[in-house]
Structure formats: C-alpha cells, structure tokens
Amino acid sequence: AVVSTQSTGALPVVTDKAKRLFERFNSIKNKGAGDKTHMTDMKSMLNQMPNYKREEQNCTAFVQLAEDCYNLYNSGTAVKQIVHLEQELATGLNEKGEPIDSKMSGCVSVFVNSPSGDGLLYTPYEKLRVLILYLLNKMKMGDPMKGESLSRLITRADIKNEGEAVQTIKKMGIDIIGDLQNKRDVPPRRNGHQEDTFVTSRWVPVVQDIMDAVLIDRKLDAKSYPHVARESQASSDVDMDVKSLRGQGTRQPAIAAGRNTGPKLIIFVMGSLSYAEMRCAHNASRRNNQMRFGHEVIIGSDMILTPEKYIDELVKLQ
User: Fold this and answer.
1) So what's the pLDDT on residue 192?
2) What's the confidence (pLDDT) of residue 185?
3) I want to staple 299 with a disulfide (CB 3.0 to 4.6 A). Which of 93, 180, 268, 281 is the partner?
4) In the chain, alpha helices (H)
C-alpha cells in the first residue's frame, strides 16, 4: 500500500473542492458585468442562463452535502473511530502500512456494552460489522475464534440477535470461524493498484481487480472466468481487439461533452452493487479516458446495496 501519498481523509479535500467550485461559478456568473462587455458576450450569457441556474443548484447541493458529512465525521460520535478501525481490519494494515496487531486491541472498545476508554457508544450494526472483520482476521492469522469463546464475545457485545449473522455467513460458503468443509475458491487479490487512496478508504473492492486485469494486464484468470474463449485462454490474453460496431474500434468525436465513444468494458454484478464499486468504475473510466483508445467502464447490477442494508439482510437471512 502506498501510504506516503495518502491524505488523512477525503472530507477536507471534498470541502475545499466544493468551495472552489462555488467560487468558480460566481466568477463565471459575474463575468461581463462591466460596461465594456460586447453584445455577443451578453447574448451568449443570456443563452446560458438556464445552465447557470442548474450549476448554482448543483454547487449549492454539493457544498451542503460536504458540510453535512464533515460535521457528522467530526461530531464526536463513533463514526470516525469506526471508519479507521474498519479500514485496518479490512486491509490488515494500519495507516503506516504496517501489519495490524494480532490482538486487534482496537476492537475491545467496540465490543463492550458501555462507554469505555474512548467514551463512545456503538450501535449493534457497527459492532456486528467489526465482529465479522475481526473473525475474518483471526482466521487469516491461523487463530480462528469459535465455540464458547465466540459465544462469550457475542454476549459481551450484547448482539445476540445480530450475532446469528455469523452462522448465515457460513452458509454462504465463507469460512469465518474455521469449521467449514466446502470452502469457496477465492482468487488471490491484486497488489499495486494505481490510484492513490485516502487513509479512510484504503480497502479496494474486488471488482477493481477485474477492471485492472482487463485494462492493464489485458488478461483474465481462466480458472475464475472459464467462459472465456479457449483460444484466449491458451494465449492468456483477452481479445481486446474486438471492434465496436458504433466506433469501429477507434475513438470518435464525442457526441456530448465528456462522452467516451471508444471501446467499452461492461461489468454486471449479480446480487448487488456498492457505491465503492461504482466509484471504482468511475475512476477507471477517468484514468483510461486520457489514453487514445482508453476504455469506458460501465458497471451495473440489479440493485444498490449499502452497508446498513447488507447487514440488515444478513441478519434476516435464514
């Protein structure tokens, strides 16, 4: 993980960008207000007035959202602590890029049922999210927690009802406590993703690995994607030269501003899609749009799934 180029968080960057966007909008809106404005400029400004109104509404909403997020993050609630703890558990690394402590002591204050050293109270869903990541890390370290130890931890965290989700995860084929016979075959994760990330968003969704395999390595793992043509498997290369019927395999003049009419990588995720995965597609498109034959990445699913909804469905699933 490239930690040296990471910021401490995305919110200050977003807030600063929101202010600059608003200042830019005001400068455009006030442009040409003097007596020396040419008639052609005034006519152009009048034609663009509806666009100015829409841009003003977008900027105002953007600034308000950034301010609300910033205030919540720094409100003294458990949000900031949970964000940093979950990133460490998900990546297995601390903010300095070092392996996390095998005891994962940061989880202790989450599992207790009263304000502890950090003086914060955590919701049952926050406790369950941390518990799932905690158990997965214990498995990875070769010290799975199960039986009475797991039951005592769930009781101490006061999430007995939510704790049933651990058994649900087992039924989904995920070995979370080390007693699963038929384990899912999980492909190894890719290292060295190109984008610099924030400390609070260091974990990279698996779908990013798929995008990088196609767009950078130009090949897909035949074991994970057996439907790929045999000749492509034999050459360990995905046929990236298939021509588009619309663009004839080359970039055409954009129909609209920012529209990429070149080759496209289309990914459909069955089951659900998270906002983090959508962001991966956006970043990949933006990065590849700078290349002559860069791919536009289009991602879709049958539904959008938030962390809260995922945990809710996990608890309800029998």
Assistant:
1) 63
2) 67
3) 281
4) 11-29, 39-47, 49-73, 79-91, 108-111, 124-140, 147-156, 165-171, 206-212, 230-234, 275-288, 307-316
